[in-house]
Amino acid sequence: xxxxxxxxxxxxxxxxxxxxxxxxxxxxxxxxxxxxxxxxxxxxxxxxxxxxxxxxxxxxxxxxxxxxxxxxxxxxxxxxxxxxxxxxxxxxxxxxxxxxxxxxxxxxxxxxxxxxxxxxxxxxxxxxxxxxxxxxxxxxxxxxxxxxxxxxxxxxxxxxxxxxxxxxxxxxxxxxxxxxxxxxxxxxxxxxxxxxxxxxxxxxxxxxxxxxxxxxxxxxxxxxxxxxxxxxxxxxxxxxxxxxxxxxxxxxxxxxxxxxxxxxxxxxxxxxxxxxxxxxxxxxxxxxxxxxxxxxxxxxxxxxxxxxxxxxxxxxxxxxxxxxxxx
Length: 327
Ligand SMILES: [Zn+2]
Hints:
Blueprint: E1 11-15, H1 21-33, E2 36-45, E3 65-71, E4 87-89, H2 90-96, E5 103-110, H3 112-115, E6 120-122, E7 124-126, E8 135-136, E9 139-143, E10 151-155, E11 164-174, E12 181-190, H4 197-208, E13 214-223, E14 225-230, H5 242-248, E15 250-255, E16 258-265, E17 276-282, E18 287-294, E19 301-308, E20 311-315
Parallel strand pairs: 3-20
Antiparallel strand pairs: 1-20, 2-12, 3-11, 4-11, 5-6, 5-7, 5-11, 6-9, 7-8, 9-10, 12-19, 13-16, 13-19, 14-15, 14-18, 16-17, 17-18
Helix pairs in contact: 1-4
The structure holds zinc ion.
Protein name: DUF1907 domain-containing protein
Keywords: Hydrolase, Metal-binding, Nucleus, Zinc
Subunit structure: Monomer.
């Protein structure tokens, strides 16, 4: 039987050659310093990110890199959600962006075919087809059917034996090599008004560079509390405004430690992109969801590792699009 993701998809792409790493470092440090009391960005050798607290499926973020924006919010809202037809697969996307065996991290929607309900996907997988053994550490977070004020964290491989997702995904691909230099970002105590470290970095790059700069990476919420959302089951009524989307989503304040998988691009090179999307999870607290912003500026602390993307792909873009629900 043909897999649900094995179908014709329109794929477009653009090369986005990154500026020199030192220039990115300076731009990020400037933006973060304006928003956090302590902010440091350094160019470092990539530590082994398979180790705690990060726990990635591959040691580094190096080698060939790419971002992909797969599907899109218009497959979910206004609805009915097109989860039956818009099925994708993490191993398959790695071959679609021509990095077989890639480490894939980022944000997406879990497959209702496998999870049973709509959910948040936190991709973290070394895909098949490369030199290294496949390793799927992807998780998903769903609303607890026994108590809808709680969320449940599931292991995508062990609990569901799946690498599929539906509707949308914002993914960062690398060869997972530890040989490349990366940007280490450390911040402590927020003094500015931008509650999202990802938005802060993205806007800093947009200010510093006229060309689009794409980034991916992982960051630990080392201290403090952050607001996340988890999508509940699909809405019976069409979600035709941001207000309706916000009323439908379930919001949670999750404590540290919590590891996020970030994707962002400073500006959209006319590909109808979602310019940032970050999901994460905590195996310590058994929580997971979509990252919004910290709610404890005095105590928030982050440490993360990021690297630029060389190319941006747009896969299976909706033909009818809108700007609802992209933050
Ligand atoms: Zn999300």
